[in-house]
User: Fold this.
Amino acid sequence: MRRKSLICALLALVCFRASSQDMNLRLRNFDSSYPGVEELDSRVLSFMREWRLKGLSLSVARNDSLVFSKGYGWADEEASESMRPGSIMRVASVSKLITAIGIMVLVDRGELSLRDRLFTEDGLLSEFRDCIRDTTAYAITVENLLRHEAGFDERRFDPMFSTEQVMKHYGLKKIPGAGDILRCILSERLAFYPGTDKRYSNLGYAVLSLVIEKVTGRSYESWIQENVLEPAGCFDMHIGGNYLSQRLPGEVRYYPSETNATAREYNGSGRTVNRSYGGSNITALQGAGGWVASAPELARLVSSVNGCPILKDIISAESVADMTRYYDESTYPLGWISVNPDEGWTRTGTLAGTTALIRVFPDGECWIVLTNTGTWKGPAFSRHTKEFVGECREMVYYSLPAQNLF
Assistant:
């Protein structure tokens, strides 16, 4: 009985520490009295006005230390709730980086290999063999999925963002999850032999979520939280919901582009809905685009996989090197969208009402920008955000203080 009480007390302490860390992140704004920061604030606000952004969260890390973290504008304009550093929001395809890190954790533990095949008789997802039409699918490896080289062609339509179309085309009676969608796509021919070409694929990273579940015997979300996020010091990251009523504690409100504000509800109901709330099945995206996080915790995560010795990495040096190795412009890296040695590492993400950017410069400085507002540019807005970050960095490169807000 005493042992049980002790365990309960320890669990309570862990929960208190996690919730306290979350609360600190939500409440601590950067002190703007430092030289140069007022100029930065002015540039951020002009950028928000230019693109009609309701809210923006900005964090900067150097040498594994969080040196700047600040929220601007509204987290929820209707409720007069200001954006805070720790306000959490959908991070879209930044989720792919989280998934790739999870895969590398399993590689480091010897539980899978990047060369492992999925659909052979002894493959990681051999239970899907019965629906394969194109036998070249037997060649698909974990690395093919990570590099968008599996042969999935999403130019006609992206099955992870076309639930209603998938249901009609394949005669499905219920809303499909990633496994159901995979079965449908495997009943078609691949666009190319795995490993010989590349086509950006949300489905590929949803399939990697299934791989993680199969190898670990756990749900994707809970395993990632326990084996990737918590070891990195991230305690307030979750798979998000589809509707406003499913908003998480501390989560922002999303505002789609004024020029593309509505959509047909993803589930085939025929209703017209706010594109940010019901236009897509966010939950089903899982590791392709389903995560909700704050800018400071994303900075903490990047600090745990960047090879800098100050904060212990959660993956091996070999895995860090594998994730950031540059081959050429025609080869996707693992999880990142770009690892050009002259520009650094970049990961972007876009959903209706969300834009996310992680940019790690060659000197190791990491800038993270999250917004809760869509623009008419759609995914192309990431380029403007990237340029904006470059301008901001020049303004404050010599003026940000040596401190650690983590």
Notes: Residues 257 and 375 are 5 Å apart (CA to CA). The mean pLDDT is 92. The first strand starts at residue 55 and ends at 62. Residues 2-27 form the longest helix (26 residues).
